[in-house]
Every structure is written in structure tokens, then in C-alpha cells.
Amino acid sequence: MKRLCIVLVLLVCIPTLLNGRERKEYDGDVLYDEAKLPHYDLPPLLITAEGKTVSTPDEWRNVRRPQILSLFSNIVYGRVPTPESPIRTEYEILKTDPDFMNGKATRKDVKIRFENDKGKAEMTILVFVPNGATKPVPAFMKHSFNNTKSRDFDVHPTRAGFIRNGWPLGEFFARGYAFIAVYQQDLVGHNEVSFGRGIAPLFYTKGQSFPKAHEWGTLTIVSWGAMRALDYLETDDAVDAKRVAIMGHSKMGKATLWTAAQDERFALAISAQSGCAGAALWRRKSGETLQKMVTRFPYWLSRNAWKFVNQEDDLPVDQHMMLALMAPRPVYVASGVEDTWADGRGEYLSAYHASEVYRLLGKKGLTSEDSPQVGKAIIESDIGYHIREGGHSVELYDWQRFMDFADYHLK
Ligand code: GCU
Predict the structure, then answer these.
(1) How confident is the model at residue 5 (pLDDT cuts 50, 70, 90)?
(2) Is residue 297 exposed (0-12), middle (13-18) or buried (19+ Cβ within 10 Å)?
(3) Where in the sequence is the domain holding 80, given as residue range(s)?
(4) φ, ψ of residue 168 in degrees (nearest 5)
(5) Residue 339 near ligand 1, beta carbon < 6 Å
(6) How many domains does the chain have?
(7) For a pLDDT cut of 70, what percent of the chain falls above it?
(8) Which of 34, 130, 180, 236 sits a CA distance of 20 to 30 A from 112?
(9) Which one-letter DSSP state was computed for residue 314?
(10) 223-232 b/e (C-beta count within 10 Å ≥ 16 → b)
């Protein structure tokens, strides 16, 4: 009997202990202790490469912003190459369901085809538009881990207002938003080296079979796909393409920030636990580092980024500069207390330091260097932020704060 009790107690406790565990994908050689982090100086946002202080919005827009964008393109994520042969793009509405979620919305499956002399590629985006709107509606676009050709986007069989993958689309429709899903693996494979398939070959020059060191890695390719999805939305009367918020979690949070940094047509960006190569500062080296990233996922960034492994202090940028590329558009950063691998504190500090540019542009940034209280979201600011209890996921709490932030800024 005693033994049975012990077994029962273990059966109940072990999963609970595991669930509550901090996300530490590596221990030992990974820093998590705030007291042990290295000293660092961030590269200045408002001093140009020529050493001149930026003191006006025009100098930011015309001089400093292009410099920073070019650095991220050439040495961090890799730039979009220029194709030798023009790419033709074609849209096809594969199917339309005006009765999605018991008539709350219309779902359109849209195929986007790309073709030039070098080859072909295609992506399938899903566009959900609330029914009954009298004018074009604002929208959320999500960089999705779920395949848009799968059943993950069917209505949830028992949870009203949700789709199978757990996204609360019903609440988006109720708040008047369209929702667009773009699948990360349509144009490039995930972790394996697959630049021979997908969109990359359409951009190769003669004899080329792999992106050059300064050319796009996976995250830039994913971001390019979202830009093409926005091109499509500009042709769709149901959606207001000038009010599209882009959002993503984790790897897709990284892609989200980079998409909106490059393409200023995106009105707002939301990063959920994007961590390393997303919102978190490289120089803190807390949780995942550049070294961990490029050894586990060599092609997410450009190959030029490899040169800075364990040399983060030599990088002419840090991620506060990427958030600043969003300015003056609203940006929201979300962290989780137990998601230490993504360095929630580093994500906050990045947002805090980016605030300098927002203030220069007459916008409202973060004013305190201290992270806010857990579960207390900062919404009424051009840089929003929350850190909540729990780990690496997107919870209803997160979704609702994202919608609150968009309600505040886009409506
Ligand atoms: C790994 C990776 C992270 C990434 C995450 C994800 O944890 O190290 O950088 O954000 O996968 O995409 O889920």
C-alpha cells in the first residue's frame, strides 16, 4: 500500500515539476544568472557611422535608419538578392468558405505562385475576414508554424471560437480583425539545408547553388514570404492593407521583427518570446547565444553572422536597433518568466533602449529600465511589453494583450 502511494505521488508530481521547469535547452555552458552576465556597451542608436550625432527625425530617417537596416541585412539576417530574371507572381483563390465558424467569417485559401527563368515556387496563405463589415478591416498576419494546407486551421471541434491549433480566431473576428496565416516552410525548409528547393533558386546567378555569405538565410526568406502575402492583401478589398499587424512566436517572432523592419508597409509588429536574434540583446549572452544558434541552426541567419560567434562586442548592431527600425510604428514585445532561454530581461532592455528613437520621433517609448511587474501589460505606449508567468508558448493572455495593443493603435 505504502509503495502504491509513493508511485501515485510520483505519477502526479513528476509531470507538474517538468511543466513548471524553466526552459533551459542547455545548462552548463549557458548563462542564466543575472549576476554573472558580462559587462557590455551597446552600439549607439543615434550616432551615425561617420560619428555624427543624430538629433532630428529627418537625420534618423535619411541617414541613420538606412545604415542600421543595411547592417542587419548584410551581416545578421542576410539580404534579399536581386534576381537576374524578373519574377512573375500570380494569385489564385483556391477556395472560399463564406460560412467559416458558423458564418462569423469568410475563409479564403489563396495560392501565390512565383516563376522566372530559374524556376518556380509557391505558397498558400489563409485569409479569414469577419463577415458583415462595411469597409476594409484591419488585420493580423501570423508567421505560422502550422502548415496552411493542414487541418490545423479547421474550426475546433469543441472549443467555440477557436481553430484546431488553439488560435482564438473568434475573438479576432469579434474585435473586427481579419486574420492571415503565412506558413514558414512554404518557401524554405526549416532546420535542414534546403536552399536548393523553394524560392532561393529563383534568385541564383549563373552557377550559384547556395546563398552567398551576405545573402538571405532562412529568416529573411520567411520574411520575404510575408511581404508577398501583404502584396496580395493590397489587391483584396476586404482588408485594409495599411493596417496590418504582423505577429509571430519564437523563431517566427524573430522573422516577424525582421519582416516589419524591412517592410514599412506593416503597420505594427508583435514579437512573442522571439529571444535570440529576435528581441533579446546579443551582448547579454543570457540564455541562447549566437554560438548556440549558428551551431544548431546554421542557416537561420546569414553566413556573415557566423563571424561574430563569441565576438558579440564586435557586432556594429544589437537588437535594440532592430526594434528601433520599427519606429514610429507601434511594436509589442512579450516574454515569459520561465522562458529563460529567450531571455525575457534582455527582450525588455532591448525595447527600453529602442525607446530613444521613438522619443526622437515624438512617440511614446518605455520609461523605466526595470522590467514591469509580471502580468502587467504596457499597452498605451508605442512600445508595448509584457512578461507573464509561464513558459514558451502563446497563451490566451498573450493573444488578448496583442489585440488590446492593436485596438489601441490601429482603430
Ligand atoms: C529553439 C531555438 C530558438 C527558437 C525556438 C523556436 O529553442 O533555440 O531560437 O526561438 O527553437 O522556434 O521554437
Answers:
(1) low
(2) middle
(3) 2-410
(4) -85, 65
(5) no
(6) 1
(7) 93
(8) 130
(9) G
(10) bbbbbbbbeb
Q: What distance in Å separates the CA atoms of residue 168 and residue 170, rounded to the nearest whole number?
A: 5
CB–CB of 170/101 below 8 Å?
Answer: yes
Closest ligand 1 atom to residue 292 Cα is 8
Calpha distance 74→140 (Å, rounded): 29
Residue 259 to residue 244: CA distance in whole angstroms: 12
Query: How far lies 131's CA from each of 104, 109, 394, in Å?
Result: 6, 16, 26
User: Exposed, middle or buried, 341 (CB in 10 Å: 0-12/13-18/19+)?
Assistant: buried
CA distances in angstroms from 406 to 150, 180, 246, 258, 379, listed in the order given: 28, 15, 10, 19, 9
Q: Is 250 a catalytic residue?
A: yes
Cell representation of residue 408: 489601441
Backbone angles phi, psi at 388, to 5 degrees: -120, 165
pLDDT in tens, 239-288: 999 999 999 999 999 999 999 999 999 999 999 999 999 999 999 999 99
Would the pTM of this model clear 0.90, i.e. be above it? yes
Residue 355: active-site member: no
* Long-range contacts from 185-189, C-beta under 8 angstroms, 24+ separation: 185/147, 186/121, 186/122, 186/123, 186/124, 186/148, 186/225, 187/121, 187/123, 187/221, 187/222, 187/224, 187/225, 188/218, 188/221, 188/222, 189/218
Q: What is the pLDDT of residue 3?
A: 64
Residues ≥6 apart with Cβ < 8 Å to 312: 40, 282, 283, 285, 289, 290, 318
Residue 300 alpha carbon, nearest atom of ligand 1? 9
CATH code of the domain containing 148: 3.40.50.1820
- Determine which one of 73, 250, 271, 355 is catalytic: 250
Give phi and psi for 293, each to the nearest 5.
-65, -50
Asked whether 245 lines ligand 1 (CB < 6 A), one says no
Q: How far is CA 239 from CA 2, 95, 177, 188, 189, in A?
A: 64, 17, 9, 27, 29
Find out whether the beta carbon of 271 lies less than 6 Å from any atom of ligand 1.
Answer: no
Is ligand 1 within 6 A of the CB of residue 240?
Answer: no
Alpha helices in 108-250 (DSSP H): 169-174, 218-233
CA distance 337 to 348: 12
For residues 407 and 377, what is the distance between their CA atoms, to the nearest angstrom?
14
Q: Which atom of ligand 1 is nearest to the CA of 288?
A: 8
Cα 249 to averaged position of ligand 1 atoms, centre (Å):
9
The x, y and z cell numbers of residue 247, run together, are 505577429
